[in-house]
Amino acid sequence: MTPTTDRTAVEAANTAFYEAMETGDFDTVSQLWLDDGATPITCVHPGWPVLTGRGEVLRSYALIMANTEYIQFFLTDLTVTVTGDTALVTCTENILSGGPAEDGAELGPLMGQLVVATNLFRRTPEGWRIWSHHASPVLTETDDTPGGDDPDAPGLHGTP
C-alpha cells in the first residue's frame, strides 16, 4: 500500500471508532480493537487508571455506553502518521454528551468537554486495529487559575 492509502485507511478506522461510540455500537467498537491473542491492548480514559487487556478495556466501553444517553465527537487537530505496520493518530475530541434523563425529560443535561487523544493502531489481516487509546482532559484557564484572563501571565498556558 502507498503511504497515502495507509493514512486514509487509518483515518477511516479512527472515524469508525468514534462513530461506533456515538451510535452505541459495542460490537463495532469491539471489532476495532486489536485481538491477536499476543499483544495486550491498553486504554486510558480521562481520570481513569490504565486499563490493560481486552476484558478490562471492552468492559470500560460497555460501562460508558450504558451510562451515556447521548455522545457526539467533533474531532479537530487530527494528524495521522504511519510507519510500517503501526500508525499514530492524535486529535482533539470536542465532546458533547448527556447522561440519563431525569424527571421525565427526553435527555439529561448536555455537557461539553475537550479531550486530547492518542490512538495507536496496528495493521492486521482484517485491517487497522486499535492497540492503545489514551485520552486526557484539556485544562482551560478560568479566573480562578494563575494568570486569570492575562494570556501573558504565568499559569496553565504561560511560562512559569
TrEMBL record:
It holds the Pfam family SnoaL_3. Signal peptide: none annotated. SUPFAM superfamilies: NTF2-like. InterPro entries: NTF2-like_dom_sf (IPR032710), SnoaL-like (IPR037401). Residues 10-138 form the SnoaL-like domain. Residues 141-152 have a biased composition (Acidic residues). Residues 138-160 are annotated as: Disordered. This is Nuclear transport factor 2 family protein. It comes from Streptomyces gulbargensis.
